[in-house]
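Protein 1 of 2
SEQ + STRUCT:
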Amino acid sequence: MSLSHLHAALNRTDWAALAEQKEVLANEVASIRSARALLAAHECDSAADLALDQAESLDGILHWMDALMDAAQQDGFPVVFLTTTE
């Protein structure tokens, strides 16, 4: 994929929808971390470890989305960042 293909993909991005999807993903990570804490409290170690692995994997996707959105904004794309926090 050339840089022009990347810019074309970024031009077709629905930034508001991406921001909403990112928020949903962040909420899912928070839920998984809460579930992990409950599992650990009940000494369900293997399930707690699995939940932690899943949360960390999803965190990686969130960090990639942050980097992509920051770079796109710096290049002048109309990126939308949701400002609500939980």
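Protein 2 of 2
SEQ + STRUCT:
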Amino acid sequence: MTTETTYKLNLRHLRTEDYDAVREISAKVYKGFSEPYTKKEIDSLISRFSEGQICIEDNGKPVAVALAIIIDFSLFGNHHTYDQITAKGTFKSHDPEGDYLYGIEVFVDPDYRGMRLGRRLYDARKDLAVNLNLKGILLGGRIPGYREHAGTISAQEYILKVQNREIVDNVLTFQMSNDFHVLNLLDNYWLEDRNSKGNAVLLEWLNIYYEKKTRLIGGTKSIARLGVVQWQMRRFISFDDFMQQVEFFVDTVSDYQSDIVLFPELFNAPLIHTYEGQNPSDAMRMLAEHTENIRIAMVEMALSYNINIVTGSVPAITEDGRLTNVAYLCRRDGTWDSQEKLHITPDEETHWGFSGGDKLKVFDTDVGKVGVLICYDVEFPELARLQTQKGMKILLVPFWTDTRNGYLRVRRCAQARAIENECFVAISGSVGNIPKVETMGIQYSQAAIFTPSDFSFPHDAIAAEATPGVETTLITDLDLDLIKELRAKGSVRNMESRRTDLYDLLWLQP
């Protein structure tokens, strides 16, 4: 007579609410020589790379867990430590544009051993590496059986004997049976692992389906050519006249094979003069009637001129009737997205009736992840930090300022964002005058592109800057690989050194 099993196993992604179960399993597996993973560590892994955190649940409760990140292997090489790979447990080393999946951890509840759950997790990792088109999977594999042989043979000799099947090591033998091959010994990899005497084995599984990424079809460019427009405010006769000037700059910048063109904040404001006699708030709402046509036209331009366009910003009316200040990213593949201005200045609220948005985004493009902060928003350092934590390498800042002191607030804050977040920051503003337009009579701008401050970048951390007060464009190449290298090997490493054990950021909106 057979009895029906009570197991109900299911493979899924790990969730933050699974932490208690993860802690319980970790405490069982590493009892006596390692503290269980903290909730902060698990939350960090899930927020940075949710696809890489996998578990097998039994009747809804995780009983086996696999944790992983993506790395750029060239930044670490064949000799590294666990702390280096995990950025001391912060997992800031996760690189969505990296080339290898790195297995941080696999552990199975001892009560479920013998059910081949570890193999299921490894197979799921392999599927993930294939789906993400990664070169393969790397592991710093433990060798706990070495404790019994440490007095007689070296770690290198022990690994060789396991490879030759002269010795069985519960971990290394299992990994080799899952098609992982040994690259080299990692001495002093994880000093807490007393059974392995601090050693580990660098193991690799190769993805035979990997397709080398190219710049022509898919993939992400390592050099981004950025065009920034310093826009002349003028009294356009009509909407069509305004769009003709917009298309001129898109055409001009695209002729230089640029990847992105950035326009300034409220660059369609000169059309307000067509609503002469209206108060500023009503005129701005009337101007918002053009916004949908601007977005449609610029998506079409992005396609026809093969360039990603950041529209600067324009007024828009939300479904609930609020007036917002919004920038559109029009990609050259025909898709688009938007970023609302979050912080509204006192004058913008008083004169025009703008209200702030509640979402902060990072956009995927064919030149990597970019963020947009509109003018005043760049003066709040928390926003750029949150975007950087999501992988942003280029921050685009459309702004509008009337006086030089207002401009300098934007410029100095943008420069600070570039240095503290180890990213490129471009600012685009307007120049000139608009007679008889209340609250928008004068503008001051010196468009610029800022860099981090280290040896691989310009000595003054400025990639390019325009002449103040004239209509012009900046076109500059940005080497995104330098950002990767800086974050891993720079003279100082702001992203890595940040004391998240003392303080951290929390985005409260869903």
